[in-house]
Design a protein that fits this description.
- The protein is of the alpha/beta class.
- It has a single domain, classed as Maf protein (Alpha-Beta Complex), CATH 3.90.950.
- The chain has helices at residues 16-24, 46-61, 88-98, 133-141, 169-173, 177-186, 191-197; strands at residues 8-12, 30-32, 66-77, 80-82, 102-112, 117-128, 162-166.
- Strands 1, 2, 3, 4, 5, 6 and 7 form a seven-stranded mixed β-sheet that branches.
- Helix 3 crosses helix 4 (133-141).
């Protein structure tokens, strides 16, 4: 194996799911929680929006001598962007929209090293079974949907609504591990040497 990369990796995200996925990849990293305005620009395409947020987060979390990884995940149904539900009413509305439908999950991942930035957007499709009002209410009471784009977490209880996915499961959770590995290697990270040191 090559020399262990002297660069430090920063996860510029407060998401515990992304941290879990990076740990699953066997990588050593520190965490930064950037404050980034997530307001969409009028007329902005969902792919452009999620890529822009991922890059903004990576730049906001960057420190000298490190490479910062930013990511963002959105749910898109019939062209409409679904963020995190503000309350139980919005959470139930989101699940009604997604019930017995197929929607898109888009995750943007970006790396920034102080000079160079690279990003990728991974699009997956998720098909839900029919969800009853009672189920939507019970699911909200579990607390799981409150900080999730689209009002559900596929890796948790929300997985019971999912009939089928097309694309990357880890991207739907919040970080596409295949594309993240490729981005890191394009920044000369020796990921296997890093794994040997974890």
């Amino acid at each position: 194996m090559g020399d262990y990369s002297p660069m430090q990796l920063i996860l510029s995200s407060s998401s515990p799911r992304r941290a879990d996925l990076l740990r699953q990849m066997g990588l050593e990293f520190s965490v930064s929680t950037p404050d980034v305005d997530e307001t969409p620009v009028q007329g902005e395409a969902p792919e452009t929006y999620v890529a822009r947020l991922a890059l903004s987060k990576s730049k906001a979390g960057w420190t000298r001598g490190a490479v910062a990884l930013g990511a963002d995940t959105i749910v898109v149904h019939e062209g409409r962007l679904m963020g995190k539900p503000a309350d139980a009413e919005e959470g139930a509305w989101m699940l009604r929209c997604l019930s017995a439908q197929t929607h898109q999950v888009m995750t943007g991942v970006a790396l920034y090293d102080g000079k160079r930035s690279e990003s990728v957007v991974v699009v997956s499709e998720v098909s839900f079974r029919k969800i009853t009002s009672a189920e939507a209410h019970a699911y909200w009471q579990s607390g799981e949907p409150k900080d999730k784009a689209g009002g559900y977490g596929i890796q948790g209880l929300g997985g019971v609504f999912c009939e089928k996915i097309a694309g990357s499961y880890t991207a739907i959770v919040g970080l596409p591990v295949h594309e993240t590995e490729n981005l890191l290697r394009s920044f000369d990270f020796d990921t296997w040497a890093m794994r040997a040191n974890v």
